[in-house]
Amino acid sequence: MASRSGVDIKTTIYNTFKGVDFSTDPCLVDRRRSPLCTNMVADSGGMPEKRCGWRTLHKVGGGAVHGMWTARFGEAQKSVAHIGTKLYSWDDTAAEPVQLMTGLHDGRSQGVLLGGKLWIVTGGELLRYDGTTVTDITASDDVYIPVTVIARKPAGGGEPYEDINLLGRYRENRFLADGTSTVYQLDDVIDAEGDVRVWVNGVEITSGWTADRTAGTVTFAAAPEAPAAGKEDNVRIQYPHTVSGYADRIGKCTIITAYGINATNRIVLSGNPEHPNLDWTSAVNDPTYIPDLSYSAVGLEGVAIMGYCRIGEYLGIVKEENAQDSSVWIRKGTLDSDGKAVFTVQAALAGVGAVSTGCFANLLDEPMFVSGTGIYALVSSNYASGRVTQNRSWYLNAMLTEERGIADCTAVQWNGMFLLAVGGGVVYVLDGRQERSYRRASNSDYIYEGYYWDGIPAVCWMVRKDGADEHLYFGTDDGRICRFSSDWDDMRRFSDDGKAIEAIWATRVDDDGDATVLKTMIKRGASVTIKPHQKTSATVYVVKDEDAEKLVASGYRSIFNWDDIDFTDFTFETYDGPTDIMLNTKVKKYKRLQIIVVNRENEQGFGVFAITKHYVAGNFAKR
Q1: Are 170 and 195 in contact (CB under 8 A)?
Q2: Helix ranges, 19-90 (H)
Q3: Does residue 348 surpass a pLDDT of 90?
Q4: Mean pLDDT within 46-72
Q5: Rounded distance, CA 220 to CA 53, Å?
Q6: Measured between alpha carbons, how far is residue 333 from residues 186, 211, 279, 368 in Å?
Q7: Which pLDDT score is estimated for 575?
Q8: Residue 540 and residue 507: Cα distance in Å, rounded?
Q9: Distance from first CA to last CA of the chain, Å, rounded?
Q10: What is the CA angle 94-98-100, rounded to 5?
Q11: For residue 435, what are the contacts with CB-CB under 8 A and spacing of at least 6?
């Protein structure tokens, strides 16, 4: 406290900033947080600065970008995008994406890398991309052919062995020849089209037999010899038999993840609108074999599976929100006494479900998803009690939960942050790099600092890792592939595709501890300290009680840089410390005062280190 001419001068300093707080009244927000903040994020020291901008890499068009993925195939890093009804790929040398396939389902898609190949579900197809060729597995015969029966006699019988493959038409029967029978009865009829193949004693036979497709038989001109005592089946017959609707069970899936027993070696698929509570698990290390009995019915039939969260050896299954059924289920895989995989599913929690199939992403070591009441983490510490979800987004929830586009939101983890695009260019951010906060009502659950961004037309995300660096890409609803400009070190990184980013940081609506007393901010001693950048500026406004905002100050700073000389804004200034913008404005008789700092200039950095005001107390307010 200072004194001048017998008047006590009081000081309020806003610094050691955190993130936003949209869930508390602006008068009651912690002074370290902001109730009005746009396009800011914490720097390495935790202070708010303007977020990185983005630029368009490719203008493909032809519809929305439904999904993007990147993977290394051998020595080549390839990226893939599903745009409209087409699939494209590009690499670091490509001027434009190359079309791989057309005629795809026009809807949101997901993909996962397994076995050196990218597996993509579109809602109409299951695609396999090996870095060169893309194949629609749901319409291909290049899939695993199961042996459905063994030790079968020519007239029938035998032992069931492998389940029918939902993918592909073909199956194999294995017979034990008796040396006299010429007619071999298959376990079903043969399709009108498609090859029948026969092996006897390990040698493929292309003549000397005929197939009756309607009867489902193969007749040999001469009876195959019986094998020697103790020998195994010696006649193999592969034939096509299509089960109506089987391929569509997989082809119409929209959700895919990878899982396994003590490994990540299977794919799990769901999201078929005709079977909303079912999912299917592939064979180990072979996504082209999805047994028809590999499905699990997860909870009530009419409550859809929305996505998956991997938690150590468990797979969390999150369904849509509902009042009738558990929303979170836990899958565990084990091996039975015969070494066969067994996957069990157990209900964990009712009430907190997901709003979108695209809202799943990790934040550091926590799997996260979005509910109608905020962003939740799926935790593994308390399965016995069934309490496995914790809200992590309290500071954002008041605005986030009112977003109209939340049902189509899409999430990604990037550089220790959870980014959630909700449509209209809006992105909500949880920052895993800052110290976590605890609230009294949270029962020891912690929450992350949050931020609010706009001007980012993302409808899907992709992160590419190059060593320790992570590069963020996104697709738009008009077919553009865009990239955040974190790879640029100059001022171009602070531009959204050539346009200025409006960055705002505001204090709380502050009564300085007593709303009944009128205060006056004195003309000297009020300032905004902004972060040094090669180019930076700030405009400062104040809002007094119910009055409109008033412009009180502005300031600009440019630092000389040999690597980026701009002769339209040339300076020899080399000092790279912070800049103090003095407000030099008296604000009389306020009960509550808010200070707003804004940067609206293109290709300028911006950050706030501190906001300082000095004021004197006056009479009691009359109203």
Answers
A1: no
A2: none
A3: no
A4: 96
A5: 72
A6: 34, 42, 14, 22
A7: 60
A8: 11
A9: 28
A10: 145
A11: 46
